[in-house]
UniProtKB/TrEMBL annotation:
It holds the Pfam family ADH_N. One of its GO terms (molecular function) is oxidoreductase activity. PANTHER family: QUINONE OXIDOREDUCTASE-LIKE PROTEIN 2, SHORT-CHAIN DEHYDROGENASE/REDUCTASE. Gene3D superfamilies: Medium-chain alcohol dehydrogenases, catalytic domain, NAD(P)-binding Rossmann-like Domain. This is NADPH:quinone oxidoreductase. It comes from the Bacteria. Residues 7-321 form the Enoyl reductase (ER) domain.
Amino acid sequence: MRAIQIARLDGPQAAHVVEIDEPAGGDDVVVVDVHAAGVAYPDALQSRGLYQYKPEMPYIPGAEIAGVVRSAPEEAHVRPGDRVAGLTMLCGAMAEVVTLPPERLFRLPDSVSFEAGAGVLFNDLTVHFALRTRGRLSNGDTVLVHGAAGGIGTSTLRLAPAFGAARTIAVVSSEEKADVARAAGASDVVLADGFKDAVKELTDGRGVDIVVDPVGGDRFTDSLRSLSPGGRLLVVGFTGGDIPTVKVNRLLLNNVDVVGVGWGAWTMRHPGYLQQQWAELLPLLASGRVRAPEPVVFPLEDAAAAIASLEDRTARGKVVVSLR
Ligand SMILES: NC(=O)c1ccc[n+]([C@@H]2O[C@H](COP(=O)([O-])OP(=O)(O)OC[C@H]3O[C@@H](n4cnc5c(N)ncnc54)[C@H](OP(=O)(O)O)[C@@H]3O)[C@@H](O)[C@H]2O)c1
């Protein structure tokens, strides 16, 4: 089979196509013919050895797939021929065939393409966990999201209204990314530069209930200042590079929370959680209440460029690579 392999840790350009043997099946795994694989920021970090999870070398990048079940154990909830999305978490996805335990596979509605399906799990389940489990989103809340034209960002803009948010404020770095955020459903879009004052004006000084922050860095303190009393700042990632520190007197003075969001770690400790999450998301996607992502699709041969687009900040929305 064809797959992408990374054999040295000097960045995305090391990702290249190889011919390798298909993985062996087994009594307790599902074999999937992969049509598309998602690209997420950890793929860029991993290619430089900078991510907390370090796969054995050489490795196949990618955390999520969509495809068709080739074979499955008798008792599995998916059958041969089923269209599925799956989580390889945190590598192994960019290959024409993968094997996965049944609990990492999720039936895809017919209305969701393989490309969209390959881009749905990693971000949407993280955002579901962030807003519902950790962020305590209530009906009528206003949600601000940084990096709003990125994978986590567009996912937040698509999902937050379906979970009850009355308003979403997207923070982006350019006018071009503002268009991406609007297309993903943002109520308002502001530029990162000076976002605190813009948010103050948009909310008549009240601030927002939730900040979803996949960026971190030097905007963290202004994010805290943008919260209304009782607000929650959800720490999702650090694409901005620096890991911010927080002076906890700010939390006390304004009655706000900084909340860690580590979805992968949570799923390891909560068996069945992934399937519970999908049970909530599936009807929203199938009914069209939440639109599927509309990813930028790269051919497999250009996987290096696909991963690099997240690192060099040129990615628009979700990025996937196509395998069939
Ligand atoms: N906690 C969890 O469980 C979890 C799960 C999944 C992902 N994550 C994390 O979430 C973060 C976002 O992932 P993603 O897949 O959404 O990434 P993405 O698609 O590349 O989006 C990230 C956004 O960050 C902004 N950004 C600001 N400074 C940047 C810089 N120096 N380099 C690159 N981007 C920069 C960019 O928006 P602007 O240009 O508009 O600023 C970009 O659109 C990553 O840190 C990832 O590891 C965490």
